Amino acid sequence: MERKDLLRQGGPCFYFDTELFAPTTDSFALGWFAAPKRGERVCDLGSGTGLLGTLLLAREESLFIENVEISAPAAALARKTFAENGWADRAAFHEGDLRDVSVLPKAGSVDYVISNPPYFPAGSGESAKGEARQIAREETSCTLDDVCAAAQRVLRYGG
User: Fold this and answer.
1) DSSP state of 21
2) Other Cβ atoms within 10 Å of 5 Cβ, number
3) N or C: which end of the chain has fewer CB within 10 A?
4) What is the pLDDT of residue 74?
5) DSSP helix/strand/coil, 81
6) Contact 128, 141 (CB under 8 A)
């Protein structure tokens, strides 16, 4: 079920779908931990519904967020979040598999990479219910090495 929430009273909103994956403490902690500099171009690898980019833009609107996401429904919610917050011109959306270089932003074009990658090896325990959750949590469609390789490709200085 699609939901809308606010980062803070009167602040930016974000959309998510409980059938895809609901936001977790991990996402909020990572969003506040990341510290790109003013005016930087940030790439969120596996951006999901765009929560990390939303958290960054809520702190620093001069950033530009390159969202890379394999799930079309999640990417649609990210677009909706960025548009409703007035940030449509502060973001680009790349739908597809981050292992496919044609999906990624141009090589060497970003200053900072963020990601909340899958963190369980496929088959290492009970799978999450639903394909979207499984992809987000388990290395079924990409591994941490794949995320690092994509980061190395898009970073201006190769990571």
Assistant:
1) B
2) 11
3) N
4) 94
5) helix
6) no
pTM: 0.88
State both tokens at 95: 């739908």
Divide the 159 residues of the chain into consecutive groups of 10 and give the mean pLDDT of each group: 94 92 86 95 96 96 97 96 97 97 97 84 61 57 88 87
Exposure class string for 24-56: b at 16+ Cβ within 10 A, else e = eeebeebbeebebeeebbbbbbbbbbbbbbbbb
Residues in a beta bridge with 3 = 16
Of 123, 157, 155, 117, the closest CA to residue 136 belongs to 117
- Residue 143 sits at φ, ψ, to 5 deg, of -110, 170
Q: How many helices (H) and strands (E) does the chain have?
A: 5, 6
In the structure encoding, which two tokens stand for residue 110, read together?
């970003």
What SS3 class is residue 53?
Answer: helix
